[in-house]
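Protein Record: Sequence and Backbone Structure Tokens
======================================================

Structure line: whole-number tokens from a learned vocabulary of local backbone shapes, matched to residues.

Purpose: to set a sequence beside its fold so the mapping can be learned.

___
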Amino acid sequence: MNSIYMDNNATTSLKKEVLDAMLPYLTDIYGNASSKFYKVGRDAEQALYKMRESVAKNIGAANVNEVYFTGSGCEADNWAIKGIAFANKNKGNHIITTKIEHHAILGTCEYLEKHGFEVTYLDVDEYGFVTPEAVEAAVTDNTILISVMTANNEIGTIEPIKEIAQIAKKHKIIFHTDAVQAIGHMKIDVQEMGVDMMSLSAHKFHGPKGVGMLYIKNGIRIDNLIHGGGQERGKRAATENLAGIAGLCKALEIAVSNLDANVAHMKKMRDRLIKGIKKSIPYCRLNGPEDEGRLCNNVNFSFQYVEGESILMMLDMKGIAASSGSACASGSLDPSHVLLAIGLPHEIAHGSLRLSVGEDTTEEEVDYLIEVLPPIIQRLREMSPLYEGVEKGDK
């Protein structure tokens, strides 16, 4: 069995069609889109407009000018939170988010707390859901922004975004969603969802790394995050990464056009994994929803009496790439903040394994993982004094 990749929520492979779409902007159409006084620059400018038009269409934006390209999903999140906070500080200083957001959101909110802003971090239930009622209950006269992720990157929970957007609109509060993990795994339409802003990152749906996007609905006033030139209609300085944007554009086109077939396949692989692991390994817990409300490609288990890092190392020896949570927090020794937020104790949260299948994942790959994982867990448990007590029947 060759190397098996089951960490698609960390990053995805670059599709050949995407690379082919990028290459002309690294060779022939190499101009600066801001250099409009000669043909090479105008060619780049025209290409950029067409890409923006395509992205707007594929996320359901009403206007091409609502699409702003960034250097990553993290930048888009930072810009959304800081930009709205500083642009509206005369109206209020209160922000609402959840305890299971990506660190790009949580870290930005913690930064703002040091600069006079107040943040409410909402609890979620045991499956990772935040309720619209909890969001509305947290609203105050000073609330200027609500930010709730579309789907969680660790446990796959799909949040009730449309209902939360209606609450935000009712109270005239700007609503942002981090949809980085959702694109390519569920239908995304910003108008249908009712959001004011949305972040995404190309490398999560078979595009290149180092390029993202922030959707900003027309009429939303937001401060700049990066200052300098007049790119992105004066809102985001830096020469546009034309090749990267071309890759994002092409990857998004492919993801949207193949969505139904890809979702059906990934859901089948996901369910096969969940069923196989549950059947073959005792003392394990599926984190996140069982089926409804779960991303089509996400599997997250906690195994008692073992450490997640040890599982990963032994899977790697078997040629399987997986993770224990968010790739952005892989250097941390602390248990996942998401797993703690859904009520897991530290010792169980430490024994987590995230498997994220892709559109190319095969049944043979899934079955191989189901074959090699139980002996790995058993071997690690045999080295655990806590598990030794369980085998003896100790309480």
